[in-house]
Amino acid sequence: MKITVLSGGVGGARFTRGLLAHLATTRSDRGGGTSAEVTVIANTGDDMWLHGVRICPDLDTLMYTLGGGVHEDQGWGRAGESRRTSSELSHYDVDSEWFTLGDLDLATHLARTGLLRSGQTLSQVTERLCRRWEPGVRLLPMTDQEVETHVVVDAAAGGTRLLHFEEWWVRHRAALPARAFVQVGLESASAAPGVVAALLDADVVVLPPSNPVVSIGTILAVPGIWEALVATAAPVVGISPIVGGAAVRGMADACLRAIGVETSAAAVARHYGRREAGGVLDAWLIDTVDADAAAGLRSDGWRVGVAPTLMTDVPATAEIAARALKLVVTGHPA
Asked: Are residues 174 and 221 in the same domain?
């Protein structure tokens, strides 16, 4: 089975780790039968230049999480991290206090930047870095071109101004009301090599509980990706990032509010849309606390599964992945 996952950072990485755990159990139960191939297409809209290095937060979170090196409590960054370089930079008054680079993490950014400047593409560099981490998936950036998500916010002197998404998210904790999101560089971008084929050739496509606006939404905005998702013969299943009217992690509610979408499991499903009605989903998995929403979605033609969806640990996440696959592979409710 070929499974393709569209992923942001922490939520997508943790889901994929659970998916791999589920697939490993399935192989074991079947006596080590044919293994699944998992491809992860990562959002790179959060990428930015800082201190002369190229930072790819979602790609790195996926590598570290799937490769066993992530700081588990944070969900991002390296385990056993130190901050000596950032501390020293602060003495030169050039440190970015709102985005601190750890020493181990900085090594990844230095390696990436050097390889990019040698003429390699982001796809080639990502493949090279994955040799270190062996994530157990084929990890692809959504595009090799630089596409950076910026946020339109009110300016103090009137009018509006643009902030890089990471500054809005990390420095301001999404407290500045977002008027819109702009993907700078999107107009000249194209899907990275292998991305469209990974969607068209998949047996199942999964949209994990990543931010539907600035993670999954940014991936879908890359020319060619939405079209491939609509065209693929594979069923497409999504897992709601909203439980009980609140974002499970991060500040997805602020992003949804900015584009006029209610913070609810049902509203996010309708934001993605059913493929039969011009959207991208064939099925939607929601948490048990949102079970009341299932009837309304089903009456509108949705295939809906209801199950516990909080990724509390790897076994719980493996069960979520199993239920999502069951929803589209067997056609039975999760």
From this structure: no
